[in-house]
Amino acid sequence: MALNYTSFETERLIIRPTSEEDAVFVYHLMNTPKWLKYIGDRNVKSVATAKQYINKKMRPQLHRLGYSNFTVIKKADNQKIGTCGLFDREGLEGIDLGFAFLPAFEKKGFAFESSERLIRAAFENYEIKTLSAITAKDNISSQKLLQRLEFNLIGTTKIVNDPNEILLYQLDNMNSDDI
Which residues are CB-neighbours of 154 under 8 A, at least 6 positions away? Predict the structure, then answer.
């Protein structure tokens, strides 16, 4: 039985939960130079292992929380161009906003547009109080995007199975009742 999860739209994009049908796209994305450098090698070396990764790493959180990794699709031509997601990441307090795009679709505003929409969903649909975001110290384009999205640099942190210190950003829901 297929469960129905929320998808989102912007003027140019459809943002829907990643599923097995995205395996070819996920395989290509997870093997781009920037993914490997800044996110890390997840040992997705074939479409079959991409399918396994989706089912073992992405879908369980979706089933548990109702959100996880979303595939970002251009409305104009239905092309899969990137991912944006809300992640319950081990070793990181709160929910983490993450994004990655195929090289041909970087620096075109798609990461900002999809992230901005998922931030709104996090606060309005999922009632998340605070979002976190992490990035490598040398990933200047991600740092600039997080600042543009109004995240504040909190400091540095380390996450499970990664020896590198990374930058930690945070964004609070200003409409939260806790204020």
Answer: 168, 169, 170
